[in-house]
Amino acid sequence: MEDIEIPNISIRMFRSLSNLTHMSCKPNTDGISSFENLLANIILRVFVWVVAFVICFGNVFVICLRSCIVSENRHHTMAIQSLCCADSLMGVYLFFIGAFDIKYCGEYNRHAQIWMESLECQLIGTLAMLSTEVSVMLLTYMTLEKYLCIVFPFHNYRAGRKQTLFSLIFIWFLGFMIAVIPFWDKKTFGNYYGRNGVCFPLHSDVMEKPGARSYSTGIFLGLNLFAFIMIVFSYTSMFYSVRKTAKSARQSILDREVAIAKRFFFIVFTDAMCWIPIFLLKVLSLLQVEIKGTIILWVVIFILPINSALNPILYTITTSSFQEHIKLCLQMKWQRASLKETPRNISTIYTQEALPSTNP
C-alpha cells in the first residue's frame, strides 16, 4: 500500500474483502514525527534539551540577578523580569516536548492520535502560545517606552510603578486570553493545538477548520506582524532623532538612553531574524504551498525559541551595570584575599573597599 493516498481511512473500506486476514502498511512521516519517535530528527531530539536548558538557566539567572542588583530604573527592571518569565515558559515547553519524546521512544505510532488529542498536548501548546505572545507584546511595550524617552525627552509623562504594573498585568492577561480562546468552541477551532506532534499551531493545512485557520492567521500575521512593524518604526525614529539632536544637545544627556536603545536594537534584530521565517512559513501555508514537516520542526524547536535563549545575554550580561557589578565583586574579593595574605592597615583597606560601593 506504499505511495497510495487514502484520505479518511476507515475499517469499512475493507469489509468487502472477505478473504483478507491481515495487512501491513508503512505510514509516511510528516517530517515532525516518525513511525518510531515524536521528533523525527535525531539532531533536534538532542537539541531540544540543550535549548530548553539554556533558556531556563539564562532567564532564571537574569531574574535572580536583577533581584539582587539595585537599579535606578526599577520599572525597567520589572519589565525585564516579566519578559524573562515569559521566555522561561518556552524552555518549560521544550522540556515537556523532550520528555514526551523519550516516553514514546520507539513506539510513537501507537500513541500518536491519543497524544495529539490529550490534555497534556493542549496544555503545553497553550504554554508555548502564552510565552510567544507575551514576549512579543512585552518587547513592543518596552520599545515604545524607550521611544517616548528618546524621541520626546522633555515630555512630562513617565510611567510610574502603578502604570507599569498595570501594563504588565494587562499584557499577561491578554496573552492568556489569546492562548485559551481556542478551548471555548471546539466546533470552530477543532483540535487547535493538536494538529502536529509538537502541539504548536503554526502550519495551516487543508483539513484545518476555517475558524482555526483565521484565528492563527490573525495572531501570527495580524498581531505579531503589527508589533514587529511598530518596533521597526520606533527604532528607526529613535536613531533618527538621536542623530538629529546630537549636534545641538549635550551628548551626555542622551548617553544613558541611547545605550539602552542600542542594546534593545540587537534584541529586536534577533527577533526579526526569528519572526521573518515564521511570517513566511505562515503565508506559504495559507497559499497551500507544500512545506516539509522538517522545516516546521526546525522553526518550532530552533528558530522560535532561540530568541528566548539570546535575550538574557543581550539585555543583562552585556549591560554596563552588570559588568560594573561583576568588577566590583571581583575587586572586593581580591582585596579580601590580599588582606588575608598581607597584614596591612585595616582602616585603609576598609576605605578602599567602601569606595566602589558609593559609585552609582
How much helix is in the residues? 55-70%
**Beta-strand residue percentage:** under 5%
Write the CATH homologous superfamily of the largest domain. Answer: Rhodopsin 7-helix transmembrane proteins
Total beta-strand segments? 0
Low-confidence segments: 344-360
**CATH architecture annotation of the largest domain:** Up-down Bundle
Helix-strand pattern: HHHHHHHHHHH
**Briefly, what CATH class of the largest domain?**
Mainly Alpha
How many separate helices? 11
Spatial gap, N to C terminus: 73 Å
The average pLDDT score comes to 78
The structural domain count equals 2
Radius of gyration, in Å, reads: 26 Å
Class derived from helix and strand content: mainly alpha
In this structure, how is the largest beta sheet organized?
Answer: none
Form type: elongated
InterPro entries: GPCR_Rhodpsn, GPCR_Rhodpsn_7TM, Relaxin_rcpt
Keywords: Glycoprotein, Leucine-rich repeat, Membrane, Repeat, Transmembrane, Transmembrane helix
Pfam family, one: 7tm_1
Protein name: G-protein coupled receptors family 1 profile domain-containing protein
Topology diagram in text:
Layout: H1 42-68, H2 74-103, H3 112-116, H4 119-151, H5 161-180, H6 186-189, H7 210-245, H8 251-286, H9 293-317, H10 320-341, H11 346-357
Helix pairs in contact: 1-2, 1-9, 2-4, 2-5, 2-9, 4-5, 4-7, 4-8, 7-8, 8-9, 10-11
Can you describe this structure in just a few lines?
The protein is mainly alpha-helical and 360 residues long. Helix content is 69%, strand content 0%. Helix 2 packs antiparallel against helix 9.
Question: How is this structure best described in words?
Answer:
With 360 residues, this protein is mostly helical. The protein folds into 2 domains: 11-318, Rhodopsin 7-helix transmembrane proteins (Rhopdopsin 7-helix transmembrane proteins, Up-down Bundle), CATH 1.20.1070.10; 331-360, no CATH class. The chain is 69% helix and 0% strand. The chain has 11 helices and no strands. The chain has helices spanning 42-68, 74-103, 112-116, 119-151, 161-180, 186-189, 210-245, 251-286, 293-317, 320-341, 346-357. Helix 2 (74-103) packs antiparallel against helix 4 and helix 10 (320-341) packs antiparallel against helix 11 (346-357). The longest helix is centred in the middle third of the chain and has 36 residues, at 210-245. The radius of gyration is 26 Å and the shape is elongated. The termini are far apart. Mean pLDDT is 78; it is low at 344-360.
